[in-house]
Amino acid sequence: MATVEDSQIQMQGATSHGQQHPLSIYFWIWALLFVFSAFSYATDFLGDGPLRWGLILLFMFLKAGFIVAIFMHMAWERLALMFAILGPPVVLLFLIGLMAIEGDYTLLTRLDFFSEPTPIAAPEH
Amino acid sequence: MPQHGVSAITQEEPAEGWRSIVSDWSADRQTFHVPWGKAMMWIFLVSDTFIFTCFLVSYMNVRISTAVPWPNPSEVFALQAFGVDVPLLLIAIMTFVLITSSGTMAMAVNFGYRRDRARTASLMLITAAFGTVFVGMQAFEWTKLIMEGVRPWENPFGAEQFGASFFMITGFHGMHVSIGVIYLVIVAMKVLRGDYERAGGNYEIVEIAGLYWHFVDLVWVFIFAFFYLW
């Protein structure tokens, strides 16, 4: 994961004087975020489907990754902080999964009970 | 590196890579080699991540579970420009405004560490101005939807849950942006006044305020993808 260049940046960047990096990197990321936003906006003309959703997710994660890594300087922090911050949100995937299953179940129940009123046989007595 | 035993523990900057995790967590002293304010801001942001995720997950849940069709966001949020309906026009502009404010904030942090007070403060104020523009556009959007009859419990476009999700998520995000604007203006004023020069020229606070601001932009990335584009 960490290349030689990375560790060099780390040595120059995360000194006791705080995060100090060349300004050009911010301009690059800024431009990239613009391009990714434009792309994800452009998917609106693609029509719904797995391709569109995949692209939305791809651009979303790219944007989020660059913001956290470069703008928030996470790429230059020590691994101890990186894992302490980025680790816990991973459990949210379980919440997302569980609630998706639950949502499906609720939908099926609603379709069963609240859709087209099916004729119910009159009670016997 | 001829270090072993105790000397490795008391060393200023412990091992690199995976070993650094072990040495940082087992050193029996400060774990995170960053100023405490920065560590605390990061931990706050983790908790905020959980809050926003709860909102987005509940939005996902109600959108999956409703039997009524969900309103099409590209039609609901379309805006007339030059006589044509452009889908999500305002949202696209808001996205670009927020990204740009993140860029100016990153530069403010950089100039802060160079102790260039005038540039730092002005870039922070520009960031705050972009934030204000963003909140203004959001207020416009809210007004437009409310005039069209969107309420937390009903709307003319489809599933009722649309309004509740919309007002809750964008409202909470807008509140974060507004607080961020106030935070940035306060820090910018203190930078300009030279408060941090008296404290030894430590401009870590600019980076900490920046973390909060970038996080607000980060949350918008997810709201943009899941609420507006999906």
Short synopsis of the structure:
The complex is a heterodimer of chains A (125) and B (230). By secondary structure, chain A is mostly helical.
3D architecture notes:
- The complex is a heterodimer of chains A (125) and B (230).
- Chain A is mainly alpha-helical and 125 residues long.
- Chain A has a domain at 4-80.
- In chain A, 66% of the residues lie in helices and 3% in strands.
- Chain A is built from five helices and two strands, in the order αββαααα.
- Chain A has a two-stranded antiparallel sheet with strand order 1-2.
- In chain A, a hairpin with a 2-residue loop joins β1 and β2.
- In chain A, α2 packs antiparallel against α3 (50-71).
- The longest helix of chain A is centred in the last third of the chain and has 23 residues, at 92-114.
- Chain A is elongated.
- The N and C termini of chain A lie far apart (75 Å).
- By secondary structure, chain B is mostly helical.
- Chain B has a single domain, classed as Cytochrome c oxidase, subunit III, four-helix bundle (Four Helix Bundle (Hemerythrin (Met), subunit A), Up-down Bundle).
- Helices cover 73% and strands 3% of the residues of chain B.
- Chain B contains nine helices and two strands.
- Chain B has helices spanning 6-10, 17-26, 36-65, 73-76, 89-113, 117-147, 161-193, 195-198, 204-229; strands spanning 79-81, 84-86.
- A two-stranded antiparallel ribbon of chain B has the order 1-2.
- The longest helix of chain B is centred in the C-terminal third of the chain and has 33 residues, at 161-193.
